[in-house]
Amino acid sequence: MKIAMRLFVPLLLCVGVSAHAFAQATPAPRYVKKAIFVRIHFDSSFYNYWSPRQNVNTLVEGYFNEVRAAYLNNASLHNIDLILINDFDRRTGPMMNFVDPNHAIAEKSPGEIGGNGRLIKYMRDNLSTGQVTKRTGQTTHILGRSINWVFVHQGAGGLAGQANATPAISSSDANVFVTTDAGDFFQQGRYISTREQTRSVIIENIAHETGHLLGGTHNDALGCGAQAGFGGEIMCTGATRREFSFGTRNFPTTERVMKGALERCNNAFRSFSACDALAASQCSHMDPTQIPACYEARLLSMCSDLCSNAQTSARVLINSLPAIINGAL
Questions:
Q1: Which residue of 36, 54, 102, 311 has the fewest CB atoms within a 10 Å radius of its CB?
Q2: At 74, which CATH number?
Q3: Which residue, among 12, 15, 16, has the nearest Cα to 26 in the 3D structure?
Q4: Which of 11-20, 63-72, 154-163 has the lowest mean pLDDT?
């Protein structure tokens, strides 16, 4: 899988100074991001199909590890930290009670009668998300937001997956479902799966639906299916072998959502005064008439959104967490 190059660079607004010279001396801001904590669920259709074939917990944690690797240390996907909260027995979890009543209607496929809508409604009614915190001493740190991934193996509205809303990372309904089923029919009222989605497509679909929670949209996706239905960025629909990247339209949209929901901040400098001193030093040797414009532009590009001590401390706590957490934080 190709990883797209970094798509975001600081805006350079220096009047009377060449952009080339300005860019050479301006460090690219580094950002601290709070994490996204994932809870995985599956329904009985998924468990009943996969459990005779392999360990289901191992299967879904394998999905998680692949999607986590796709987002982590990937600038075009904002270097998102995904951390799995493995805090309950999924076989008795809230989604195992979901049974689409129309699955029992002979010769009527859920793909024809809105099975995805019923599944989404059940998820909204029975799952919740919110802030994840950890207490150290007398301080409670907000580490990030939680989301739910739900796996099914059924023709849920004929869709490969769906998110509750775009964006939804800040809401209590930051849920997505993904199906591992790729074909079905009914026989004497019983749902029959005919084939499975390939693993690579399942991983793409999880990353795609998670992208919706961050504000990524189909309408802003680029390069979709340019070659016989293959390729394009991760937010493309109706295509496979998508690149794990947000394109030049989805990247700034998701950037804004993440900055608000996950409180991104610039940790390139320990303090504003340190950044201010560097900006002044870099402009000090210029023509005096150009110094004010240079100084203001460097403050804008280098010194915005600096991390507070609390945000930096929260980042340290996240760095100390394992990728999979068992039990409460």
A1: 54
A2: 3.40.390.10
A3: 12
A4: 11-20
